[in-house]
Amino acid sequence: MKIIKAVVGVLRNESGQLLIAKRQDHQFMAGFWELPGGKIEDGETTEETIIRELNEELGIKVNALSLHQTMQHTYADRTVELCIYNIDQYQNTPLGIEGQQIAWASVQELHNYQLLPTMKAFIDSITLPNKYWITPSSNHQDEAWMKKFDEKMTQDISLIQLRSKTTLDNRFITELHNKCQQHSIKLLINTIDKSFKESYCDGWHITTNEMLNLKSRPCTDDKILGASTHNLNEALKAQELGADFVVISPVQATKTHPDTVPLGWNAAIEVVSKLNIPVYFLGGMGLNDLDRTLKIGAQGIAGVSAF
């Protein structure tokens, strides 16, 4: 099976809409919409390729860019290894220089288009934040726990995992969810008795054991599903199951689990490179590690006390 290495760029206009292009009749997957870009030529770096491709296809000059995500997708006859770059600054108005149809669309409007398979994971990556806060797993209703939760309502947090090793009262969870909704924060439930039918949440987070015992995605596509993983095989299983993102851990040594051998950055980076869905790093993470995770194409960092 042939391997194709390609790059695409994420362009936004002043309204925050994204630029997409329709594949032409002579191209593989003709008629599908995608991010603009193309194949890497011999001797080119990925950065050189995206700069050249966007100039040839759209007539723009790229002034600043940053890695957004890497992914790999296997079709019946080929595997595509893809680098996605944020085009942070560019000159000129994008045009369909090569005769291709282009369009500006909001994230919500993207669902109205016939998109390449890789676009589903991309949409997840731009709608999920770069920080994922996990609540302490015990003493949920004591004063210290509630104070910490309320503090997150006013901090730069927009995704929270409610983690508990014991059964929680539904009214309590509903109260927390209502607080989150008031602050545009998504709340995922990770409790021992989750049914995947709870209405008082935005989705669920599953443990590694739960994930390994599932045969199919346990919830509808309009809900978020996260999964905890500890190696590449588990992460690939979560992706196959239909998880929207994974958390890989422990990346670095932690004080809470001093006897656990950390994966290390190289192993964590391999997970990012092999998965299509967003990957959060957990374990020994701090805000000082956020830039590093983003530069290698990870979604961001997760933690209880990391931020």
Automatic annotation (TrEMBL):
Residues in Nudix hydrolase domain copies: 2-132
UniProt KW keywords: DNA damage, DNA repair, DNA replication, Hydrolase, Magnesium, Metal-binding, Mutator protein
GO molecular function, one term: 8-oxo-7,8-dihydrodeoxyguanosine triphosphate pyrophosphatase activity
Residue ranges that the Swiss-Prot or TrEMBL entry lists as coiled coil: none
Reported cofactor(s): Mg(2+)
GO biological process, one term: DNA replication
EC number, UniProt record: 3.6.1.55
Catalytic activity: 8-oxo-dGTP + H2O = 8-oxo-dGMP + diphosphate + H(+)
Family: Belongs to the Nudix hydrolase family.
Protein name: 8-oxo-dGTP diphosphatase
Organism: hydrothermal vent metagenome
